[in-house]
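Entry 14. Ran structure prediction on the chain below.
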Amino acid sequence: MLVCSPFLNGLSLDNLKGIVFDCDGVLFDSRDVNIHFYNEVREYFELPPMSPRQEEFVHTHSVRDSFSHVLPEGYEAELPRIRDKLDYSKLLPYMRMEDGLLELMEFLVGTPVKRAINTNRTTTMNLLLTTFGLEKYFWPVVTAADVSRPKPHPESLFKILDQWSLTPKEVVFIGDSAVDQETAMGARVPFWAFKNESLQAQMLIPDFWTLKEFLTRNLG
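Output, structure tokens:
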């Protein structure tokens, strides 16, 4: 259910100047691709498929933290031997872009609202945006490689606010996980949950078509 109010915890959409999007689970349904990738790497180490808890972890954390979480100690020494298996770019075409995303972006291009990405991805982010023709819609794109402390630390959101020269009250962060929720809280940025009713958020977004309709009614 989308909360159809133009005032959300003190944020007036008339003053909304920027929207920050998480990537995995928001812009893209990438869960199955991520699970396949990490399970292939675990297979090299003769490990069984990940547990549901491990699947959730790799969906929301950086690749470095995910490797440390699901691989045995000392895995780094083996990475050169399994480089082909670690070529995540081969899986990008199998990712599914969320329905209505392009239409939402085209709408926002015609407004003063800035758009950024805050993700725990690293080297695959630019290739992902290029593969799906999305690179023109977002600036900045902040990845785990661009900060010293990735999400859930708020450094990434602070970096975006600094580049936009905006205050936390002038933007919102759209995410789908507890990691995103914690990041927003740490930066004191209003948080909108995407398809996840269990999160503590000012608004729940069921899909991008509904969000576009809501913003069309309430912006300006």
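Residues 31-93 form one domain. Will compare against last week's run tomorrow.
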